[in-house]
Amino acid sequence: MLYVAFADSRVFFHFHPTNPMKKLPFVLALLLSSGGAFAQSDCSVPVLKALQNNQEVDVEGSALPASITLVLANKPNCASDVTYQFTGAELTLVRDKRPLLPTMMANSPEVDLTAFRKLYQTGDRLYIEVPGRSIVKVSTAGKKEKLPLAENQGAAINWVLKK
User: Fold this and answer.
1) Based on C-alpha coordinates, what's the Rg of the chain?
2) Around Cβ 46, how many Cβ atoms within 10 Å?
3) What is the C-alpha to C-alpha distance for residues 59 and 52, in angstroms, rounded to an integer?
């Protein structure tokens, strides 16, 4: 007897001990027919990017500018004619796993970071999150549609800061 379970884009097989070789053609057919499904990444949630002067910021270690522009973009392997917008973003300056200031809310792509610039030190992090409820898909015709995402399915950046 063959049991097949799907979880997180992986297939698990369990064979009953009686003559598993009889199931081999079925397993091969299943793997060959669904091979394309394993190559795709999750395209339901866009990627959040921080831009300064229309250039992507190095979030692995860079100084904090006075302002940034937040952009939601398609993942590299997810070609699509849609664009994304957000209705709200949350920014938190973190040191040693603790917020330095209350979370700042941003309702537009342009974000003023001068309040954070006065306090940050090398090694601090700027955590930027666009919750799932705030992400809007915009079609080529301009039609806006909220994505059916859970609260924890948003897009985020965990930016390592340097002076």
Assistant:
1) 22
2) 24
3) 12
Give the helix/strand (H/E) hosting 133.
Answer: none
Distance (Å, rounded) from C-alpha 122 to C-alpha 119?
10
pLDDT in tens, 71-107: 999 888 886 778 999 999 999 999 999 999 999 999 9
**Rama region for 29: left / alpha / beta (φ>0; ψ in -120 to 50; rest):** alpha
Q: How far apart are CA 72 and CA 155, in angstroms?
A: 8
Residues 113, 91: Cα–Cα separation, whole Å: 9
CA dihedral 20, 21, 22, 27 (to 10 degrees): 90
DSSP 33: H
Rounded Cα gap, residues 153 and 127, in angstroms: 15
pTM over 0.85: no
> In terms of DSSP H, where are the helices of 15-158?
24-33, 35-39, 114-117
Owner of token pair 């398609």: 74
